[in-house]
Amino acid sequence: MDRSEVPRVRFRLLFVLMAALLAVACGRTAMRVMSRAVESNLRADAVGALPDGLHVTLCGAGGPLPDPKRSAPCTAIVAGDRLFLVDAGSGAARNLAAVGYQAPRVDGVFLTHFHSDHIDGLGELALLRWTGGSHADKLPLYGPEGVAEIAEGLAHAYRLDSTYRVAHHGEATVPPSGSGYRAVSFAEPSEGEGTVVLDENGLRVTMFRVEHRPVSPAVGYRFDYAGRSVVLSGDTARSANLERFAAGADLLVHEALSPTLMGVVEEAAGRAGNETMRKIAHDVLDYHASPVDAARSAAAAEVGHLLFYHVVPPLPVPGLAGVYLDGVSEAYAGPVTLGRDGTAISLPAGSREIRVLED
Ligand SMILES: [Zn+2]
Ligand SMILES: [Zn+2]
Q1: Residue 115: nearest ligand to its CA?
Q2: How many angstroms is it from 115 CA to the middle of ligand 2?
């Protein structure tokens, strides 16, 4: 080694040493931050921190196709100090955590129908709720007939996993009786008929039929609490029955699929020679509402606010949201929010206020 290289080697050594020390220091700082974050997350009660009222958060604003901004359908509804979900698509539990809601805090799940995108996240949700909260009671799963089959199927799929967890952590930590779902099943109501599926602590949840043929049963829900109301469409083409049950609601959370954009998908699939995708893109048009259909329902029911969810297809390019919403403001004069994961709307008790917290 040339003598002139010695200072350079020393400098490199010093640099490596400093970088190593910094990494250790950064690692320690990061661990301290992590430790505080875990503690505060475990102590936090985002549900309890909310003012009295109905609070709606999208834990999945999309449909079956992967979309980074919109996971499969999931809506979290806080009524007073209770937390419910309507549908639990893929990503439901992770999106709940992202908005500060803990899975063990979930008091029940309502299913609108049994299309896979609405139930894909159920297994993970039940597992996190059970193991995170030492629950001895299964999570209630409300829905039309068929819900018991879903609960049984999940119990079967997760049976081995539950035995491992009980063997590893003990029955006191993960009581075997609390794993999975308890189905609470109702006959699909006929047109014009509403079935009250829950009436507790001032919250009334009413199930009504929607139009998603050949999928049957298919229902929507109306939540009434403290003089405030929210209606969820589930999956439906434009439905006069939904308009009946949504009458005067503060908030309508309605699905919508854009025929214009699905036309683009269908055409592109045709050019790509993907006949399966082309046919599916065409077939789905007849059992979903268009954004303008949803807006017409919002106008007919005279709701206070329209929130779009089950946004199909994905809108990955800026500018597509405008195409999706084309014609909506002409059909419905009230305020409209195009949902994405995390969109939250609050309806405080004892007021007429509709507060959009994130859109
Ligand atoms: Zn769907
Ligand atoms: Zn569906």
Answers
A1: 2
A2: 5
- Report how far residue 305's alpha carbon sits from residue 334's, in angstroms, rounded to the nearest whole number: 6
Q: Which residues pair with 85 in a beta bridge?
A: 76, 109
120 is annotated as an active-site residue: no
Find the catalytic residue in 117, 120, 293, 341: 117
**How close is the Cα of 63 to the center of ligand 2, in Å?**
9
Give the C-alpha separation, 252 to 246, whole Å: 7
For residue 34, how far is its CA from the centre of ligand 2 (angstroms)? 40
Q: What is the pLDDT of residue 44?
A: 79
pLDDT tens readout for residues 282-305: 999 889 999 999 999 999 999 999
pLDDT at 51: 93
Task: State residue 12's pLDDT score.
Answer: 66
Domain span holding position 170: 50-358
- Asked if residue 16 belongs to a domain, the reply is no
> Among 306, 191, 181, which Cα is nearest to 254's?
306
- What are the tokens at 86? 């309507």
DSSP code for 79: E
Residue 162 CA to ligand 1 centre (angstroms)? 29
Structural domain contains residue 125: yes
User: Number of folded domains in the chain?
Assistant: 1
- For residues 210 and 239, what is the distance between their CA atoms, to the nearest angstrom? 6
What pTM value is reported for the model? 0.91
Give me the residues of the chain with pLDDT under 50, please: none
Let me know if residue 35 belongs to a domain: no
Q: Tell me the CATH number at 340.
A: 3.60.15.10
Task: Point out the ligand nearest to the CA of residue 90.
Answer: 1
Q: Is 19 part of a structural domain of the chain?
A: no
- For 174, half-sphere exposure in the C-beta direction (CA atoms, 13 angstrom radius) is 19
